[in-house]
Write a sequence for this structure.
């Protein structure tokens, strides 16, 4: 079983509902020997009444207890930073404050708004919306240095109501190439987020697995670092759609995925 490198708990992620005990038990029941925990940390998130930043030192201390509880199940201590142009330097600095195993970067906002709540951006033509979102992903990977993984490049499509929308390479090949160039040059990983697959499938979208042209181009440019993450927030959603994602990656010619420990990539066979 490949490592599920992207999960949240209610203890430090304000939008998560599962406890660490639930996550540990589920991971063991599903046969994992290792999972990543990547709590949300959003610097200067738009005011929504929630606290999207947590006490890093408290997390560092709690994690020792979590690992004791987990026993032979290895827990990777991670964080998921939300990117905005004006917080790039802050992210790089904050990622060094405690010893993380893995640092994920994400774009959760569009023009400064949380599109999970604010639907305005979905009035744009999908192609324009996806291009502008991918420009932020590319900028994030170019401007930040202190990270390991670019998470869910397809997050913008998760909350659209148009079931035929889908992020594809052909919509903005120049931007995808910029994104991959930054990842490959800096030796950072591309995440396949299986919650996106699940959301598309459950929502009855016309497509669910990542566009093959995206993954083929990444590999053609020399990309080798693929991580898988289910982005679980609730009990029962660890490793959702993992089998399909692994089978799909193999069909495209990928042979290995990676997880990060002490900020270094370790390969495991798909
Ligand atoms: Zn995220
Ligand atoms: Zn997440």
């Amino acid at each position: 079983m490949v490592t599920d490198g992207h999960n949240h708990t209610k203890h430090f992620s304000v939008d998560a509902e599962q406890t660490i005990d639930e996550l540990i038990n589920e991971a063991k029941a599903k046969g994992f020997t290792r999972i990543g925990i990547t709590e949300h940390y959003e610097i200067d998130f738009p005011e929504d009444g929630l606290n999207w930043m947590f006490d890093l030192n408290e997390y560092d201390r709690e994690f020792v207890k979590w690992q004791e509880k987990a026993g032979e199940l290895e827990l990777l201590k991670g964080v998921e930073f939300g990117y905005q142009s004006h917080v790039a330097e802050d992210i790089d600095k904050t990622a060094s404050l405690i010893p993380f195993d893995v640092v994920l970067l994400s774009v959760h906002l569009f023009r400064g708004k949380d599109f999970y709540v604010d639907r305005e951006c979905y009035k744009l033509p999908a192609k324009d919306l996806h291009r502008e979102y991918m420009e932020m992903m590319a900028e994030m990977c170019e401007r930040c240095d202190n990270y390991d993984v670019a998470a869910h490049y397809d997050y913008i499509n998760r909350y659209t109501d148009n079931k035929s929308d889908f992020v594809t390479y052909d919509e903005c090949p120049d931007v995808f190439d910029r994104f991959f160039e930054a990842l490959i040059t800096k030796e950072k990983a591309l995440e396949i987020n299986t919650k996106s697959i699940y959301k598309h499938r459950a929502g009855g979208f016309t497509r669910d697995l990542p566009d093959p042209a995206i993954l083929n181009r990444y590999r053609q440019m020399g990309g080798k670092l693929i991580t898988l993450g289910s982005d679980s927030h609730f009990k029962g959603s660890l490793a959702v759609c993992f089998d399909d994602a692994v089978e799909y990656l193999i069909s495209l010619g990928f042979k290995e995925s990676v997880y990060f420990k002490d900020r270094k990539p370790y390969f495991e066979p798909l």
Remarks:
- The chain has one domain: 20-269.
- The helical segments are 20-29, 56-70, 88-94, 126-143, 173-186, 194-202, 212-220, 242-251.
- The chain is about 35% helix and 20% strand.
- The mean pLDDT is 97.
